[in-house]
Amino acid sequence: MYWVIDTGTSEYLLDGKGKYLREEAIILPMGGGIAKYEHQTNVPPIPRGKVGEFETVILQDGSPEIQEDHRGRKLYSTMDGSSVEMKEIGPLPNGVTDKERPSPLHDWNQEEGGWAPNRHRILQAKLAEIKTQLKHRLEKGGFEAFGTWHSSSQRASTQIVAMRQSIHADKFQKENWITLLGEDTRLKKEDVEEIYEGGAQRTREIYAAFRAHKARILGFGSDTEKILLYDTSKDWPMSFEEYLASEREKLRGNNDNDDS
Q1: Over the stretch 187-210, which tens digit does the pLDDT of each residue have?
Q2: Residues 6 or more apart in contact with residue 249 via CB below 8 angstroms
Q3: Do 255 and 129 share a structural domain?
């Protein structure tokens, strides 16, 4: 019995079910003996039960030998976490790991043999997140006044300021105003003032939340894991988007109760 050998790698080849491929010996004409080719050997391989998941058996100096085999595995560079492909039999080279990088905020720790969060980058990323939240909520968050929601955009703010100036100059006439809920209304003087105060109060609340988030993040000190897991999307004044989401959730809950 002869086993099939890869002429390039000298490994014993397997079929799709993980069994060693065999070839019957070819009988030569009378007196010629048995044919043996480069891609065959009559040296039995090591039993598959003794070969690990990421190992293979090669024919080395006439004897079967187990070697590491990481071909086909998902592997990554320890430099930047990019994908790496192993094309040869053998152990993992330096700079290659089977551990996927959790995020660009992690660096490879050679001593521990794994990815570790980079505190400086994580801290900067979290501070950037709350700045993004601040900007978005100031411009897009909206606010409540006299029972409805109003835009906090620069355009809307400019419009309200202009109305207040016309009030102070005693030139104000009722102005058309469209709320975030699509309500078309005519603003009276007291409405303008209430919208102005509502927007100013919401701005103060948003900045207060921003400062609180920043203080919490910096307060974690060297506890990188707490910084990494900190949720910067919570504990802000409710935005118009969040209000709509809560109303939709209430509606779904009511429908579920009606169906039960």
Answers
A1: 999 999 999 999 999 999 999 999
A2: none
A3: yes
| In a shared domain, residues 146 and 236 | yes
**Number of domains observed in the structure of the chain:** 3
17, 62: one domain: yes
- 101, 81 in Cβ contact below 8 A? yes
Indicate whether 59 and 149 sit together in one domain: no
Q: Give pTM, 2 decimals.
A: 0.71
∠ CA(218), CA(221), CA(225), 5° rounding?
A: 100
* pLDDT tens figures, 126-161: 999 999 999 999 999 999 999 999 999 999 999 999
Tell me what the mean pLDDT of segment 88-107 comes to.
96
Per this entry, what is the length of the chain? 260
Residues 172 and 45 in one domain: no
Q: Which domain holds residue 195?
A: 120-259
The answer on 235 and 108 residing in a single domain is: no
Residues 128, 254: one domain? yes
The rounded percent of the chain whose pLDDT value lies above 90 is 84
233 and 206 in a common domain: yes
Structure tokens at 95: 């700079």
